[in-house]
Automatic annotation (TrEMBL):
Ranges for region Disordered: 302-335
Chief site of localization: membrane
Basic and acidic residues composition bias: residue spans: 318-335
Protein name per Swiss-Prot or TrEMBL: UDP-rhamnose/UDP-galactose transporter 6
Record domain Sugar phosphate transporter: where: 23-297
GO cellular component terms, A-Z: membrane
Membrane-spanning intervals of the chain: 12-31, 43-66, 78-96, 133-150, 156-174, 186-207, 219-241, 253-275, 281-300
Taxonomic source organism: Elaeis guineensis var. tenera
């Protein structure tokens, strides 16, 4: 058998990264749904803190085994990332509490155009007409099959705005830090996970009490609930890693667009395992439209000019610097 070309290897790794993210993300959602709906563990922020604590332990073990090399991330960059990431988690939880499910879904959809705007302004990315239209098709399809009742108030709108902006910034920053400091996914997790774990485990119980009026230390921890908590933490390691891998290999916008495939899969699995209530023709049509848009986006954005960085004429004395950036780009593809 002839060896795979560089392009074929990259395509295979891209598919593997997406499948890894989809499987772990959907699995995490289904486990968390069972944990919260069946066993009554409604402490989402504290659970996220436990996820990052488990991820931190994993990176420490891998570094001790020599599988992950030491790296450097400046403290100001780390603090900015943790601020965006924690605002995202808190903002999404508060937005869900203060808004209807329909408006919460609309807010999540708004992350795509905000992420596009960040790439256009900060990375000088240009999108072709087909790429823009495919994104619109994805947004319409997901909206049709997920948005039902829509009601909003002032504080809910503020929470949703903070959630959308901070999530988009956090995901953009993952790609930015990996490129700027040549960090692999586990390296970046090794820097960010401990800070997120510590801050969320300190903040989480108070925020969860505010959101649910229940104390996490007073919860009746049955054997089944503890099992699902541990399982959730283990799967979350893969979810956190796969998110960094996907954003590092692609971009925050591609991660958001194709990430809505997880929304569709969660809906389908929910109808299979938790009953077919709410499944109707317009939901099915919305799913078909969203999947069509995702396929169109993948095809349009991969074509020449579909999604590319604007190039400018550079003086001859900067050619060497450009070469350095090209080498970093090749390194990024191998993350």
């Amino acid at each position: 058998m002839a060896p795979l070309s560089k392009a074929d290897r990259k395509a295979a790794l891209d598919v593997a990264a997406w499948m890894f993210n989809i499987v772990t993300s959907v699995g995490l959602i289904m486990v968390n749904k069972a944990l919260m709906a069946t066993h009554g563990f409604s402490f989402a922020t504290t659970l996220t803190g436990l996820h990052f604590a488990t991820t931190t332990l994993t990176t420490v073990v891998l570094r001790w085994l020599g599988l992950v090399q030491a790296s450097h991330l400046p403290l100001p960059e780390l603090l900015k990332f943790v601020l965006f990431a924690n605002l995202s988690i808190v903002g999404m939880n508060v937005s869900l509490m203060w808004n209807s499910v329909g408006f919460y879904q609309i807010a999540k959809l708004c992350m795509i155009p905000v992420s596009c705007l960040l790439e256009v302004l900060l990375d000088k990315i240009h999108y072709s007409r087909d790429t823009k239209l495919s994104i619109v098709v994805v947004l319409v399809g997901v909206a049709v099959c997920t948005v039902t009742d829509v009601s909003v108030n002032t504080k809910g709108l503020i929470a949703a705005t903070i959630a959308v902006c901070s999530t988009s910034l956090q995901q953009y920053y993952v790609h930015f830090l990996q490129r700027k400091y040549s960090l692999g996914s586990f390296n970046l997790l090794g820097h960010t996970a401990p800070a997120q774990a510590g801050s969320l485990l300190l903040l989480g119980p108070f925020l969860d009490f505010w959101l649910t009026n229940k104390r996490v230390d007073a919860f009746a921890y049955s054997a089944a609930a503890v099992f699902f908590i541990i399982l959730s933490c283990l799967i979350a390691v893969g979810t956190n890693l796969s998110q960094f891998i996907c954003i590092g290999r692609f971009s925050a916008v591609s991660f958001q667009v194709l990430g809505h495939m997880k929304t569709i899969l969660v809906l389908i699995l929910g109808f299979i395992f938790f009953g077919k209530e709410g499944l109707n023709l317009h939901v099915i049509l919305g799913m078909i439209l969203a999947v069509t848009g995702m396929i169109w986006y993948g095809n349009a954005s991969s074509k020449p000019g579909g999604k590319e960085r604007r190039s400018y004429l550079m003086p001859a004395d900067k050619s060497q610097r450009h070469g350095v950036l090209s080498e970093r780009g090749e390194h990024d593809e191998k993350v």
